Amino acid sequence: MAVLPIVEVPDPRLRLISKPVEQVTDQTRAFVQDMIDTMYAANGIGLAAIQVGVDRRILVIDLQDEKDEDDKPIKAPHAYINPEILSVSEDLSSYNEGCLSIPEQYADVARPASCRVRWLDEHGEGHEEELTGLLSTCMQHEIDHLNGVLFIDHISRLKRDMVMKKLAKLRR
Ligand SMILES: [Zn+2]
């Protein structure tokens, strides 16, 4: 178990295009576990490898939307390696997004409501699924990271400036 430091804006690494994973190995699996530990430690629901400084096309997501009898979230982390969006719906849905690389800042972002995605799991097995709801939003947000895109790129310049100002204040 290792919790890795998270890269935050305006670190230029967040603008890199991440490279595909050529082979899923034990090393990949150990790194995926570190990403999962890091995501939970930061109370996130998704994390892209570049957010811990590694420019590989790897994501972890756990929406933590299922609760046990004590109302504690049931952990069900998933790894998505070389994820690819095959198609998106025409209808959009808006969600108040946040990002571990832009701490404590949120903004409404409109994205396609559903998307069809293909990926490899941590055992190197292929999957293809139609994603909807929060998982669709989260997946698109995380795949954006692999292409050097942040959620603040999807909002107006005015709102983006506001987010960055609030963040600067928070850091002072
Ligand atoms: Zn993010």
Q: In the CATH hierarchy, what is the superfamily?
A: Peptide deformylase
Distance N to C terminus: 31 Å
Number of helices: 3
Query: Which CATH top level class fits?
Result: Alpha Beta
Strand order in the largest sheet: 1-2-3-6-7
Q: From the helix content, strand content and strand pairing, which structural class follows?
A: alpha+beta
SSE succession: HEEEEEEEHH
Tell me the count of domains.
1
Q: Helix amount, in percent?
A: 25-40%
What is the third-level CATH name, the topology?
Peptide Deformylase
Largest sheet: 5 strands, antiparallel
Oligomer: single chain
Strand content: 25-35%
- Mean pLDDT over the residues: 97
Describe the structure.
It is a single chain. With 172 residues, this protein is of the alpha+beta class. It has one domain: Peptide Deformylase (Alpha-Beta Complex). It is built from three helices and seven strands. A five-stranded antiparallel beta sheet has the order 1-2-3-6-7. The mean pLDDT is 97. Its EC number is 3.5.1.88.
Brief summary of the model shown:
By secondary structure, the protein is of the alpha+beta class. Helices cover 26% and strands 28% of the residues. It has a single domain (12-171), classed as Peptide deformylase (Peptide Deformylase, Alpha-Beta Complex).
Itemize the secondary structure elements and their pairings:
Elements (H helix, E strand, L loop, with lengths): L25 H16 L4 E3 L9 E4 L16 E11 L3 E8 L2 E11 L2 E6 L5 E6 L1 H14 L10 H15 L1
The protein binds zinc ion (ZN).
The site of zinc ion has 5 residues, from α2.
GO biological process, one term: translation
Catalytic activity: N-terminal N-formyl-L-methionyl-[peptide] + H2O = N-terminal L-methionyl-[peptide] + formate
Family: Belongs to the polypeptide deformylase family.
